[in-house]
């Protein structure tokens, strides 16, 4: 965990972050394609908060996969453009060929998983002379791979939807086995394989993401009201969870969400 007295910029605030739909061929596998332009003249210390997702990245001429985070990760962002493809729930396991609990909190070179094919992807992206064309090329290269990979299991998206719906209608973790037709033990193993951690941890991370969404929509909201809207028991519960998952105070977390942070004020 990042020490509380070391405040870092939230990664998606450290540059110019943009998301777009993945190309049609990739949509069964990926939620979105994204870029983060880091325009600073020096390296930036950033905080990546857990979001329950796995991303393929190309940055610094390296092709990597960032595994699911169970707590905040501290990463150095160098000037340049980061390209990303964010997997749909449950999709990454088939692409990587290993259970996700093997790469929790890690950034792994795709060469270790794909060998020569990963080197070819990195070389083709590096050789593209027009930086603005690289995200499209990245997707085209992955579309060639996608034809041989099965879409993710439907249970993964169902699980996220049951946990991440509006507070009033959400399903508690204890009810998931019945909804997914699995025993509690089987669900726990299955969740670790496809998400990197068990249902309880996934539930905490999805609630943190609801807090992020609520704070961005209601920037003037108090911590107490945000706690209710996001599904926390109360403000102290929110504060404990933000500190545990993000390594910063709830007030600092919300402050960075609701302002246009710049490197002077100080993703993946």
From TrEMBL:
Residues 157-256 form the HTH araC/xylS-type domain. Coiled coil: none annotated. Signal peptide: none annotated. It comes from the Bacteria. SMART domains: HTH_ARAC (SM00342). One of its GO terms (molecular function) is DNA-binding transcription factor activity. Keywords: DNA-binding, Transcription, Transcription regulation. It holds the Pfam family HTH_18. This is AraC family transcriptional regulator. The lineage of its organism: Bacteria, Pseudomonadati, Pseudomonadota, Alphaproteobacteria, Hyphomicrobiales.
